[in-house]
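I'll show a typical protein example:
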Amino acid sequence: MSTRDIFDLDQQRAPYAEAVAAAARGDWLRLNVPGHGADPERFDGLAALVGAAPLRLDWPPLLEGLDLGPDSPMERALALAAEAWGARRTWFLTNGASQGNRIAVLAARALGGTLVVQRSVHSSVIDGLVLSGLPAAFVRPSVDPDLGIAHGVGADDLARALAATPDAAAAYVVSPSYFGAVADVRALAGVAHAAGVPLIVDEAWGSHFGFHPRLPAGALALGADLVVSSTHKLGGSLTQAAMLHLAEGPYADRLEPLVQRVFHLTQSTSASALLLASLDVARRELVGGGKRLEASLEAADAMRAAVRAGGRFAVVDDGFGAFPDIVGADPLRVAVDTRVGGVPGHEARRRLMREHGVLVEVATDAAVVAVVGAGAAPSAERFAAALHALPAVPGLERAEPLRLPEPGPVRMTAREAFLAPSTAVPAREAVGRVSADTLSAYPPGIPNVLPGEEITAELVEFLHRTVAAPTGHVRGAADHAVTTCRVVGGR
């Protein structure tokens, strides 16, 4: 039997999940935490909510036969995940890719004085800047002005930013974007390495990459050094379960102990066995899920074909060729320009949910994004029928599209502004002041204003129009309607 055959056989197992399930079948008198004691009769309210099985599977950490010891089921599960994604080492996370982003930024603090970071990163990266105190030099992404969505950064732009930042700690980019745009990670890695710094990739939306010939290659295979993977998004684990992967590369020896220390700093000491086991199972299903992935790809293809055939709406990634920083698209993302068909994205999302029972992942003023999970096969017919049944909004063609605002000038570091004395003032009076908060139209959670940036009138207008939309929300706002903004200093 070859080494590859042994690898394939091992990948058909889920050692930690199997051990948790076996333990749940035992006859235990559970006098440890969690407090429900795996007793669905006495905790019938909880059992009625989630069922009896999750209570029995809900084991605490540090148990022999589960996660203690150098050859425990947990260690074997982590090793299999590292093999599957091509990593030197993998960490299982129970606080989502947000935890992975915070870990990466905190670890980068020991590598240099400034983080060179894509401006359209997730808000959790900014949280990492606040926690670490690391200053940032931002690289602007390309933006589709008609749809109001940000894509990625090009290698030339990253090279210029690194050349202007002699104390760079690392380069931090996003690929794929929320809308499925794939950046040239290989070129970005080459630029970062030429500048003497590691490349960190927030690949939250690409945990499935590399597991089918039609899917883009994963960032690790393209030269990234540290990759954040939100496995629950499309990879099939439970919500909040994610992974962090370290490449076997020139920065691995330096990064590994840093990441391990920060992992212990950020991971709960009561990490959920259910979440951890779901990561083990998701890895097994991705590795062996060729037929299921093929069905998912066919379903997504059928959804895009139905959108095009209807002649009313447009498929967003059909226009990706206009942006030189985009080298591919995630075929499991179906992004639809609804505004061109007479319906704002927020209104389309609300009506699809309320009137048709169709849930899409996100909406902007102009578009919605439908996600097909790796292994899922949703009905393209139901999606298309609901989409084309949406009534047009009268007068939309005369309404001014909601465009992404330019960020204000940076006046302080994120940490300085977040921890400085601050006060909430009426939003209009905040114009020209320094924000103490991260404010993000959510989802996707890309910050529109950062702690330390000046608040502009354009930003206030954008945030007010966002919350006025049917499903609009601004994460980090002092109040739901953004009537006030928290600024540095007093009134």
